[in-house]
Amino acid sequence: MKGLDLIWHANFWDRFNFTPESVGQEGQRRLRTTTSLNDIIDIEKRDRIEEEIAGGVQGVLRNNSININHSAITTMVCELVDNFSRHSEQTLGAFMMQYYPNAEQLILAVADCGIGIRASLSTNPKYAYLSSRPHHEALAKAFEPLVTRFEEGGMGLKDVRDEIQQLDGTFILSTGDAYVKFTNQREEIGSMAYELPGVQIELTIPVEV
Length: 209
Fold this sequence. Notes:
- The chain is α+β, with helices and mostly antiparallel strands.
- Helices cover 37% and strands 24% of the residues.
- The protein has eight helices and five strands.
- It has a five-stranded antiparallel β-sheet.
- β4 and β5 form a beta hairpin.
- α4 packs antiparallel against α5.
- The longest helix is centred in the middle third of the chain and has 18 residues.
């Protein structure tokens, strides 16, 4: 994901078990800010976790008087957090956000190091064939309505993609060695030269000032 500076603003060193000395030095350099959640938020497998995280995002939007569709952002955050909570298997997902006033952008990021979209969908007998197909085929399938590893599915990623396009934003998702990038003008899907565990999503949304 290109939004590595998102993690830099969070408790990166502490969360990923750097030495106490490194954690202490980084903490001295770090200033808390009202333009982010000030942490990497774990997506735990418990009831209403999506509402809790969406509430934190709403707080940042209100505190900064961000001129953006708050309802749409809340809906997308709830959908993504719920999706990762249900699909991440035994690994925790993580959620991050940052508002960049000078760049006039809001960036949301969510990721895990789980089994990825291809392996997840393949557990559903309808899509078992995907286990031997390239990652980008499974990724394309995941954006179709009602496609899920479970017996019944909703709109999921398709709804988030459509909402981002309406907001003139950018949607980037990677899983395995596949990636997809959506804007309001084009759709790009392909393969990367390396393979990543799990699923990584970054949403970049323009803000009017």
